[in-house]
Amino acid sequence: MEQGLIIDQFDELRVLYSGLTLQKTDGVWNIQGQLIFIASFADQIIEDEYSILLVVPESYPDCLPVAFETGNLIPRYFHKYKDGNLCLGEPLAVWKTFSEQPTLLGFVQRNLIPYLYSYSYLRKNKKLPFGELSHGELGRIEYYQDLFNVRSEHSLFGLISILAQGEYRGHIQCPCGSKKRLRLCHGPQVLEIMRSAPLGYFKSLYQFMSQRGLARLR
Known about the structure:
Helices cover 44% and strands 17% of the residues. It is an alpha+beta fold and 218 residues long. Strand 1 (20-25) and strand 2 form a beta hairpin.
């Protein structure tokens, strides 16, 4: 991680979010302070603010910042990991969004603020604006069911198997049940995901779905 890159990107971020500060502690860059934002969904404009901490890893921008809400406004049940950092969405989807604008400003505006807006919207309207995925691997199943537009977990498992094993064969029948060859059906989506996902990324989801399937057979 280049120091100049972080400083330049933070300067760009602070133009719009002046309540944030940048500090380096024990070799790690931390961005913290009050994040004041205005965002909208379906014509509902919400202005709100949260105390946040972004821990920027040494491998940035190859790895994303880790986000925390430090004002204790957001409860632990609202999509947080065990150590308290915010679950901003399905990890590969978050990475894809970041890669389209790979800056600290892009991360804040396109990943962090939608999460914060969702909780503000929930407090105001007693419901979520974008819908809600389950926690953990169940949430990932729901995400990829929507992404591939398949409702059957059996069909999804076939596609996840290809991704987990990393072996693409376009001539085989697509697991979705369309009776088309993979390359003429979900193949392009599968290839795009394989190019962007880290090696072994789908292993845990594949194992979870395998065990889930075995449990249903008992």
